[in-house]
Structure formats: C-alpha cells, structure tokens
Amino acid sequence: MDKREIFRIFAERAGVSFALSDIEGNLLYLNSAACDLLNVESLNGMNDKNIYSYNPKFNEEQTKNNVMKTLKKKDNWIGEMPIIDSKGNKIDTIQNIFIIRDANNAAKYLGNIITDISETKKLKKQIMTSYKEKSRLQNILQTSPTIVITWKNEPNWPVIFVSENIRKFGYKPEDFYQNKILYENIIHQDDKERILDEVELYTMKQSLSRYIQNYRIVTGSGNIKWISDHTFIEKDDDGKIKYFHGILTDITELKKAQEKIDHQKNQLLSIFEAINHSIYVSDPNTYKVLYVNKYLEQMLGHNPVGKICYEEFQGLQKPCDFCTNSIILNQKYKPYNWEYYNKKLEKHFLLNDQIIKWTDNRDVRLEFAIDITQQKEIERSLRESEQKFRMLSEQALIAIMILQDGKVKYANRTLSKLIDYSVEEILNWEKDQFTNYIHPKDLNFASKQAEIKQKGIKKGVVNHYKFRILNRRDEIRWVEIYSKSIMYKSKPANFITMLDITDKIRNEKERKKSEIQYQSLFANMPVGVAYYQVTTDSDNNPDNLIFLDVNSTFEKITGLERKNVIGRSIKEIDTIFSPDLERWMTKFSEVIKNNEKFSVEEYFKEINKSYLISAYSPLSNYFITIFNDISEIKLAEKRLSEEKETLDVTLKSIGDAVISADNQGCVVLINKIAEDLIGYSYSQVIGKSIDKILELYREDTKERIVNISDW
Fold this sequence. Notes:
Layout (H helix, E strand, L loop, with lengths): L2 H11 L3 E6 L4 E4 L1 H7 L22 H14 L1 E5 L2 E2 L5 E2 L1 E9 L5 E10 L1 H16 L1 H9 L2 E7 L6 E4 L10 H5 L5 H4 L2 H16 L5 E9 L5 E12 L5 E10 L1 H23 L3 E5 L6 E4 L1 H7 L8 H6 L10 H6 L5 E7 L4 E11 L5 E9 L1 H12 L14 E6 L2 E5 L1 H7 L3 H5 L15 H12 L9 E7 L5 E13 L2 E10 L1 H22 L4 E9 L5 E9 L1 H7 L3 H4 L15 H14 L3 E7 L4 E8 L5 E8 L1 H23 L5 E3 L5 E4 L1 H7 L3 H4 L4 H4 L18
Antiparallel strand pairs: 1-2, 1-7, 3-6, 4-5, 6-7, 8-9, 8-12, 10-11, 11-12, 13-14, 13-17, 15-16, 16-17, 18-19, 18-22, 20-21, 21-22, 23-24, 23-27, 25-26, 26-27, 28-29
Helix pairs in contact: 9-17, 13-21
C-alpha cells in the first residue's frame, strides 16, 4: 500500500473535514466529511474548485494577508472563519490551515482541517439569548448572596454558565468557560469522592429532578468555604440529562456557629460523663428520658433513654407527687435545690434541678443528683452515739423587587410570600406605599436608601444592611438586603434583593442564650472544675497544662482566682498539686495518652483537706480535672472510728458483765466477762432477743419477765 492510499484511508476515517489544495487554493482533494460539509457529492461535481471561494471572509484582503503572514512564519494558521456551502448556506467553522512542503522545503500544498462549530455557536447563542431575555435575573444574580451555575452532563462537569458573583470566591467566570478551572477540582479533596458518588446515585433515579448537597470548596486564595448546593436536573425529550443547574449558597458562617454550639454541648456532656454523680435530662411535658450519664446508667443497671422518668427512677405508674417540674418551669433557668430519699434505689440524694435548652431548642429538665447516702448513714450513726455533726454539701430563598419613582415595578413570589401580599397587589401599590411595610424604627434609614438609589445618587449609598419589615398580619420579619441603583427602562431604579433572616437572628439569640446558660451552669456546678489545654514535648508526650477556664467552686476550693490562672500553666502557679507535681503530671499524662478516666481520694496535708479528684481528656489536647471536697466526710468517718474504738476499750476495761439491748430487746452489745458468765459467745447472741437467752425476774415481785421491751 503506497503513501497516497494510506493518506486517503486516514483522511476518510479521521472523522473531521479535510481539504488539500495547491498554494493558490485550487482544490486537489476533499474527504467525504468535507463533501458533506460543503453539500457536494464529490470534488469532481464542483463547479468552482477553489477553496477560497467557499471562504468569503478570506476574500477580504486584510484577513487574507494576516493568514498568509502567519503561514509564512510558522506554517499553520488556526482561527474561526465561516464558509458558504454549495447551496449558499453559511456554516461557522474553526479552520486549521497549514503548509505542506516538498523535499526542497518549498511550499507546495495547503492542508485545511475544518471543524463545524455551527451547533456549538447556535447553542451558545440560544443560551446567551435566553440570559439576555432574563437581564433582570442577571442583575439579581450579581447582587445576590447566592451563585447560579450550569454544568453540562459530561465528564469533569464543563461549566457553560456561572454568575459574575463567583468572583467572591476568587474565580473568574471565563476561567470556567475556557476550562482553565474545572468545577470538580475546586471541591475539597475530602468531600470530592462523596459528592461524585452522590451525583452518580442521583442521576440513576429517573424520577429525581432536584437534590441538595453540602460540601466544602477551596477558594482562589486557598480558603475553605462551606457550600449548600441546590441542583436542578434538565433533561432532553428522550429523558437524558443535558444540564445541571446549581444554586450555591455560602453557609460557612452557619457551619461555624453550629460547630461552636456542638462543641459547647459536647464539652458540657463530656463533663457530665466524667462526674461521679447522677445526671439526667428529661422532657418536662412527656416525662421521657432524653439523656443519662454513665454514672447513673451504671447505678440503674441499664440505659433508660426513651422511657418514662417516674417509671424508671421511682418505680411509679404516674408522675411523682413531689415532681419539681412546675417549680423549675415557673422560674425558668434558675436552679432549684432540694433533698430526697429514693425508695427504689434506697439512696439519699441532694438534687439540683433546672430548665435548660436542649439540642433541638426545646426546654428540658436537667437534674444533678449527688448521692449523699453515705453522709446520711454517717449522720445516723453519729446521732445514735449522741455525737452530732453537720455535712457540708455543694451543689449550657431571596425576595426581589425593583423600585422606580416610588412604585414597585417588579416583585417576585418570594417577596409575595414574605409579606403575605400577592404579586398583583404589590404591583398595584400607590407611590411610596411600600414604606407602609417597613418597621417604624427602620423606616427613616430604609426609605432614604430607597430614595437615593431610585435617583441614581451614589453619595451616602449603603448596598448591604439589615432591617425589619411588617407583613399583612403585622408580623415582624428580619431581612438582609442587597440593593443597588440600576437603569430600568432607561430610567434609574433601585434593584433590591432581600433574604429572610428571621430564623437566623432568632437562632443567634437562642445560641447566645444557650451560651449564657452553659456558662452559668458551668460556673455554678457544685464541684470544682478546671479546663486545660495540653502542651507536648518533642516526642509528643504531654508536658504541661495551660488553664483555659475554672468555675467558682474551683476558686473556693483552691483559693485561686480565675483571672489569675487563665492562660497560665500549672507549673508556674502554686496549686494543691505543686508539692508533688511530678507525680500528678505522670498520672495526668497517662490519662491523656490512654484516653481514659481516673478518680482518686487524696489528702493534702498542706491545706488539711481531702478531695475526690477525677480527671479525663474529653478531646485531643484538652484536659479536665474535677474536685469534690470530701474533708467533712473523712472527718466524720474518723470521729466514728475513734468513738467505736473508745467504746471497745471501755467495755474491755469494765470488771462487770455488760449486756446491752435495743428498744425491741435484741442484744446489740456484750463484753467478754458477760460471755463467760452466760456461756454464749458474741456471735451467738448478737441480734437475738435477750429473754430467749436469759431468764430474767423482777427484783420486787420475783415474777419472770416475758418480754423485756415491756419492762
């Protein structure tokens, strides 16, 4: 097979239009694709066989000179140039004209690879025409906080339209049109696989016409932004997906606010989990248990979440008569302290109840229960031995309108829904009637801005601000407004977009209230809490703790003021750990590295105090210590032990037999002399009725005493 035959086969099967001519443009060869493009059967059937005849623009001297000059410099010219087929139809093409030289390097032929771009240009023209017809929508997009984007359903999602405000993310629209930047490549690496998998799944669902995805993108400056992507699917007549139309909203600040709330709540729940006291949360209306900490779960022997509180905690079939819900609901977020003996658990508790905001923003009951059974038992023992003491206990879619000459010239349905008036009613408002729906406190500023923007005045213009409006029912709605002066029907007008931020402001207020409640709860905890940041050495081993926060109970216990410790390390402050800091840091390091929790009772002789100290690491590089003053308990235990020891010594030193019974006549005490006298050991008589062991008689009547409790 010779070279010409190889060339012919290649040209016929290349899939593009190809023409070969001499230097003067006289055609020598056309492949079948080129014949189809020029609407001729073959080269032989053409009346005019000069390629330039089909390129009317080439007949313009300037164009021809530019092409020839380029060919002389680098042997090829590529550019957009229309051709006229044999029927006189104009076809838009991109042509690659190149010189073919002979063995002596003389220019002998012109090759021309012709690409038909008519359909592409037609599609672009349709798109541009469509967007031009929606010029008001374009103005909306440019001043809107949301971004509109259209992708082709092709690999790498080529962008065929993106609104100008993509620039706020550091990108130019033309970068996407020219494929310098692929939208897929600005999606954060950690989210990309998930997003691609979700899109593939969504596109397989024939009935699905829209979907929402939240993900991160990387801006042109390298910053990370969270995006909420509302995508609408456009299909052709055959049901195949042609385009994806996306509405992108920056939700970065919303994410940060939510993360802050979640961090605070997780931190609070982490503290709850570390406290060796019962804590639970329930719905005061339904009595359902919403949360219990591990300590209470272990005490109950199961997890009662989702069940009824009075059934689980009290073993009752109806709400408790002593329930404090009505009290704490009435006094809202103030704590209520009381004591109660739980018959089901057989324990005494010191209770701290209050209403807090839960994760779903509803009011719930938080109960902090300190088990004081041991204290109560010690008190009872001390009362029986006539030694009294007291125990000390310590208790977080856009509305749009155009204003011109004081009248509303355009309003969309979102605005209608926002203020509860139909679009027709809004458009029929009298001059300046729109001001009737601005809150009186915001009327002066908002109406002034509307006035100067309708006149096209630039001085004093504020494009972005927030204010209140009133709907048909006189309900107050907060809106965030973006507005600017535009030319509408050849006259200045005020173009306005409004975003309903009522819920956002309400949530922000609730968030601040929740934060205040969290701080109040943290500050008023009946145990001392210190929150630290962990620093590490070169081997990533914990080597120091920096105070981040302490509560008021911590201040009372340690004598250290919060303002004097925040930001300082545990090694530079004289704390109760200081005399033996190396031992404590070793313990704390083990807790941090192993992500475990420990509790220990420790007596600090320097301050003559005993504490139950708990420590744990709730998050990486953070650490918490909890101090519970048990000095009074330890003192009471010591006093009781000493009293029993004194009693034992006294009984042993008495020369007479001693037997003691309680009010029911049961033996509670017997010394060694009495054992020898009656012939029974201590273990044989303790708890038994004395009249079953000895026959007792009245001294005066000599009658036998049958029941000593009646004597």
